[in-house]
Amino acid sequence: MKTSEARKLLGVGPEATPEAIKKAFRHLAMRWHPDRNPAPEAGEFFGRLSTACDHLLGLVPAPAHGGGGGRAASRGDDRHQDIELDIERLCLGGEVDVVLESRIDCTACGGTGYSEAGYSQLCPRCQGSGRVRLGHVLFRCEDCDGRGYTRRIRCPRCEGAGKRLERRILTVTVPPGMLPGDELRLEGEGHPAATRGRPGDLRLRVRLLPHPVYTLDGGNIVLERPVSVFALLGGGRVAVPSPAGVRHLELEPGPGEAREQRIPGAGVPARGRRAAGDLCVRFVPVLPSVPVPALVRHYRALQAEMEHAGQACAPELAAWEKRWLPGSAMQG
Ligand SMILES: [Zn+2]
Ligand SMILES: [Zn+2]
């Protein structure tokens, strides 16, 4: 391949640095890579672009220092992105759609931002003067080559930007046991290589979506479970939610105050060397707020029993009554 032809294909001048050549190739590769472009001629054209790129890079001496330059050209850059997961997904894993956005050359104008009209018109940039002012200096207008009129019109598809946003949806399988900050690596889903090398990797960093009930503490799942004060006082089996389904906890009879209890291993599951977390449940007492008629006689019976038990049952109350109601009340 002739050097002039290679330059023309990539749209670079003789002064282009290896970096500029690779960049030009990357832009064109986004458009012509057969994985992206279903047109039958895309494969052949992409091959010519690769040859042109290799040819031009062969002309310029590779940097002698570093040692990374030569190898970097053989593989595309990694692409970094966040993936937002809720606690259920961290625990159970599953498939998640990830939207990948890339700015690629506008196909309508080939990335120039302009298209050629069938007529000449006053140059919109210099308003016909052929010159543009930068600070105090007048320069020749590049849009019309100083002529003041032009056939070039702003590309209507990309509005002159030369780029458009391409969205690609990738379905990713998330394994159970990921934690916020962990990275999921998808080989070959990163940026395309400058030359024939393989693309970089896609590296998805896990971010946690808030949940109305669960929070995370490392691999432990923490939640508050409102529970009747009688369940705390009397003990018994209590159901608690967990991302993997309802679990049950045995409460010992205890004070009618908030308390914590955990189910070992019922948090975020183990992954690699990391052990499974716990499910940490904080039981918060709820007092009956309405006197249900059918229960009123039970409350009265309970109250009588409590007065009888006095000091042992509610020491603060007993102390208050002993101080301020001497000779009556809880002394029966
Ligand atoms: Zn102009
Ligand atoms: Zn365009």
Question: How would you describe the overall organization of this protein?
Answer:
The protein folds into four domains: 3-72, DnaJ domain (Helix Hairpins); 77-100 and 166-209, Urease metallochaperone UreE, N-terminal domain (HSP40/DNAj peptide-binding domain), CATH 2.60.260; 215-286, Urease metallochaperone UreE, N-terminal domain (HSP40/DNAj peptide-binding domain), CATH 2.60.260; 293-331, no CATH class. It has helices at residues 3-10, 18-32, 42-59, 68-72, 87-92, 229-234, 293-309, 315-324; strands at 79-85, 94-105, 114-122, 131-134, 137-140, 149-154, 163-174, 183-186, 202-208, 215-217, 220-228, 236-240, 247-251, 259-263, 279-286. Helix 2 packs antiparallel against helix 3. The protein is α+β, with helices and mostly antiparallel strands and 332 residues long. The longest helix has 18 residues, at 42-59. Mean pLDDT is 86; it is low at 62-72. Helix content is 26%, strand content 30%. Residues 123, 125-126, 130, 141, 143-144, 148 line the site of one zinc ion.
Task: Provide the fold topology.
Elements: H1 3-10, H2 18-32, H3 42-59, H4 68-72, E1 79-85, H5 87-92, E2 94-105, E3 114-122, E4 131-134, E5 137-140, E6 149-154, E7 163-174, E8 183-186, E9 202-208, E10 215-217, E11 220-228, H6 229-234, E12 236-240, E13 247-251, E14 259-263, E15 279-286, H7 293-309, H8 315-324
Parallel strand pairs: 1-9, 11-15
Antiparallel strand pairs: 2-7, 3-6, 4-5, 8-9, 10-11, 12-13, 14-15
Helix pairs in contact: 1-3, 2-3
Bound molecules: zinc ion (2 copies).
One zinc ion binds near residues 125, 126 and 148.
